[in-house]
Amino acid sequence: MPFLQPNALATLVESAVSTHSPRLGRATHAQIIKTLLSLPPFLSNHLINMYSKLDLPTPALTLLSQNPNPNVVTFTALIAGSVQNGHFPSAFLHFSTMRRVNSVQPNDFTFPCLFKASAALRIPVTGKQLHALAVKLSFSSDVFVACSAFDMYSKTGLREDALKMFDEMPQRNIATWNALISNSVLAGRSFDAVRAFISFRRAGGEPNSITFCAFLNACADSTDLRLGCQLHGFIIRSGSEPDVSVGNGLIDFYGKCHRVDSAAMVFDGIVKPNSVSWCSMIAAYVQNDEEEKALVTFLNARKEGLEPTDFIVSSVLSACAGIAGLELGRGVHGLAVKSCVEENIYVGSALVDMYGKCGSIRDSEQVFDEMPERNLITWNAMIGGYAHHGHADLALASFQEMTCGGNCAVLPSYVTLVCVLSACSRAGAVEEGMRVFGGMKVQYGIEPGAEHYACMVDLLGRAGMVERAYEFIKEMPIRPTVSVWGALLGACRVHGKPQLGQIAAANLFELDRHDSGNHVLLSNMLSAAGRWEEATEVRKEMKDVGIKKGPGCSWITVKNAVHVFQAKDTSHEMNIEIQAMLAKLRREMKAAGYVPNTNFALYDLEEEEKETEVLFHSEKLALALGLICIPPGIPIRITKNLRVCGDCHSAIKFISGIVGREIIVRDNNRFHHFRDNQCSCRDYW
Ligand code: ZN
Ligand code: ZN
Known about the structure:
By secondary structure, this protein is mainly alpha-helical. About 65% of the residues lie in helices and about 5% in strands.
């Protein structure tokens, strides 16, 4: 390196900061020591600033100790570096050294850093003391100091003080307004955010990309589609080239408002999508149950060379969970390990959830056990997994461990209790369920909601206490929802209580005239009781209202390819082999004592359910393909979009015994693990 003047060296130090290069920084420092006899104070400050910003506090403090007269620039550099790197308590330590030992006064650069630290540590008392000092030193009218004080008041929960400050500010810049809008969103007051935006426009303000993003967040949180669309129009009209961050905000907003097509349109319009853009698009698809599109987007992102982040990986895992894509999920798990994000708590929780929803509870447990730390989401995923598989005892044991885990106990949420209660209802654990429900408010301070009541009705109904379940509904302090009456109707069908069933159905139809499932249930129940006319009436009503049930289909993954079947499907390339397999199974099942469930078929409205066709139900076709193509010893996994029918359920039990294999069917309600002529649901689903 040639001999450089101190000013040129200072420029080099600055570029080490801007390029985040400790190497360049240290090399320059060495050069300074070599070429200069003594370190000029301004260069020492530059170096302290550099080390502090690069998160290397030790050399920064060494330089400080060698500086006989540190000034406000020296200390502000230390404080700013600490805040930038998230060491908020250190920022205050440097501040107190500066005041106590060196009697140095803070300036308009010091205050914003300190306010930021108080906001991050959520300590309003210190924030207020700092504000008093700023007033005393006449910095309170400085627009940057005032704006950061306002931000501190908002973030430490002192909303009134914050608004008072805002009103008293002699001058406001765009940062001030942006702070007002985004803090309103953070406080969950989207309406206030919108009002602030309008006042800002009235005051003649020109919004920038930060304003737009904050406003879009407000619209997304309140799912105010109309307002967000207006802003989108405003952005287009303003004609300025929108920042990629605004595009990302729009994707997020449209995704949350269930306008995933608009989100995709915005995404396609972004010239250079960044990591956040891809991530927002994937999340938007996942939120709107478009799992396949989410996965395709992820693959495209990988093709573009995008490194998977913890956020992307957890979104993609949710997509895998949504389509029960176990092998795909395993692939993403591998990717998470490769990208070193598998220890992240969100990724870990998403893995627990994915394995549970894809039917591999053992993998779920393994991930759960290996996680270095767990939060509420992790516990909910594990307990939800057990509930889904009907393991009430394990769900309750986990719940116990979660809530009584000593100093690492986690407070259960609304969702946790829904999982625990649904586990109890699926396993017929009446007493435990009643106990947990009874303790909800007293022990955990959670007011039971519609979902909890639905679980309880289901619990009582399944256990045959249908009248008690009805009494329970009548005593509910909140209005019963579709799921509550639906649970009662289901119980009435299973236990043959048509009269009570009709009460449930009447309430259901009042709440939702268009749900096909309820109509089918009621009609089945009436036919079973021999009340054919009424059953026909229900069917007619279904037609009148124009209810169409989506076609039932089942899917199975064979060698990374997904095969989808509908009932009576003959379009598969291996149809001949499938038909031969079905015929062979029919013979063997008959020999083992299987009788097709004609009763069941007779009552149902579904085309799929007719007697002659029960053999060609979609799940049986998928199973036949699985038996042909999946080698022995590997469990066969089938997913169905409707509930598995009674005939298929008993047929698969027989088949599991005949072929000696584990068959796992996930229907739209739960998992069925078939093995040795038995199912894990104990015929209760
Ligand atoms: Zn079936
Ligand atoms: Zn079952």
